[in-house]
Amino acid sequence: MTLLKLLKINKWVGGERILKDISLEIVEGEFIAIIGPSGSGKSSLLYIMGFLDCPSSGDILYRGKPINFAEANTISRLRNEKMGFVFQFHYLIPELNLIENVMAPQIRKGISPKEAKERAETLLVRLGLKGKEKRQVFEISGGEMQRVAIARALANSPEILLCDEPTGNLDSKNTEKVMEIFEEINQEGTTIVLVTHDLSLARRAKRIIEMRDGEILKTTPLNGAL
Ligand SMILES: Nc1ncnc2c1ncn2[C@@H]1O[C@H](COP(=O)(O)OP(=O)(O)OP(=O)(O)O)[C@@H](O)[C@H]1O
C-alpha cells in the first residue's frame, strides 16, 4: 500500500528552483535513505514529505488522499497523528523532564495523562533510558537526548518516521545505537525516511534516493521509482 505519493513537486525559494519535478512513491514498510551533496535539496524534500513546508507546484497524496495545504487543521492533525520527526538537533523542551517530553505529543493528541505516562515509560526503557525518566534535558548526554527525541517521535505510533541527519551530532557508538533502533522499528512496520550525508548509513536502508541540484539523480534499487 502506497503511503505517500509526490507528483511533479517543485519548490521555488527566492527565485531559485530548489526542487525540480520530483515524483516519488513511498510504500508502507519501506526504509528509504536520501543522500546527496550539501544544498541538493534533501531537507527541503523531507520537509515537504512531512507537510512542514508546502510545494510551489505539484501534488501530494497520503494514503491516496490529496493533501490540501490550505487546510491547516487537517494537515497538523495528520502530522501529529501519523508522522514522527527526528532532526539533527533534538528540540526537546528544557522546562520538561524526559518523561514529560515524551508525554507531550500524546497529551496534544488527547490521550489521558495516565496512558501517555505509561507509553512514555515503555518507550524510554526501550531506548535504554530506564531510571533516567525524571531527569532534566541538561542532565543527560547528547546521545541520550537524541534517543529521547526518538522516543518522543514514536510516542503516537507514527506510520512514518522522517529523520533529517539524526546522527549528525553523534559519535560512532551512539550513531550505531540510533541506527539499530531505526532498523528495529522498521522491522516492526514503521516506514522510515532518513536524510544523511553518510553513505555507509544510507546503505542500511532498503532503498537509496540520490539527489543532485534539486533532482532525483538515481534510485537504488530502481523498482520503487515512478
Ligand atoms: N528557507 C530557505 N531560503 C533560501 N534558500 C533555501 C531555503 N531552504 C533551502 N534553501 C536552498 O535550497 C537548496 C536546498 O537546500 P536543502 O537544505 O534542502 O539541501 P540539503 O541537501 O538538505 O543540504 P545540507 O546537506 O547542507 O543540509 C539550497 O541551495 C539552499 O540554499
Automatic annotation (TrEMBL):
Keywords: ATP-binding, Nucleotide-binding, Transport. Pfam families: ABC_tran (PF00005). One of its GO terms (molecular function) is transmembrane transporter activity. Residues 4-226 form the ABC transporter domain. Signal peptide: none annotated. The keyword Cell inner membrane does not apply. PROSITE patterns: ABC_TRANSPORTER_1, ABC_TRANSPORTER_2. Gene3D superfamilies: P-loop containing nucleotide triphosphate hydrolases. The keyword Signal does not apply. InterPro entries: AAA+_ATPase (IPR003593), ABC_transporter-like_ATP-bd (IPR003439), ABC_transporter-like_CS (IPR017871), ABC_transpr_LolD-like (IPR015854), MacB-like_ATP-bd (IPR017911), P-loop_NTPase (IPR027417). One of its GO terms (cellular component) is membrane protein complex. Belongs to the ABC transporter superfamily. Macrolide exporter (TC 3.A.1.122) family. This is ABC transporter ATP-binding protein. It comes from Caldimicrobium thiodismutans.
